[in-house]
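Practice problem: YdhR family protein
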Amino acid sequence: MTKQTQKTLAAAAIATTLAATSGGAETPNPLDQVAHVIQFVRFESTLPRESVLAAANERRPQFEAMPGLVQKYYLEFDEPNTYGGIYIWESKAAMAAFRETDLFKGIPAAYGIASQPRVDIIPILFPLR
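Answer key — structure tokens:
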């Protein structure tokens, strides 16, 4: 199979999937379908690992109840005292609303964040599944 054939088949599969989910309307551009947003956060903590885990577990129910938060993954990196999270939001609006909460405002103190964390906001083009 040539690369051109593969590209054509992939484009057709995407168009078919989008048409099936759009109720038969004109096939939308995948870039117009962006809804979910990934927020990637990485930070260095001044706290021992046990304290970071305790803070994460203590705050977990609040994150589970957060409107618009589809999923959150807690991360621990190979670098010493480096942690983070991957948040999957229903929309940019849900992520923005989270930034106004006490839960968000308490993150630096709860995790002993040593310096400005790295934060990347990544729109999802479309999911595989």
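Discussion: The radius of gyration is 19 Å. Students who identified this feature from the tokens alone can consider the problem solved.
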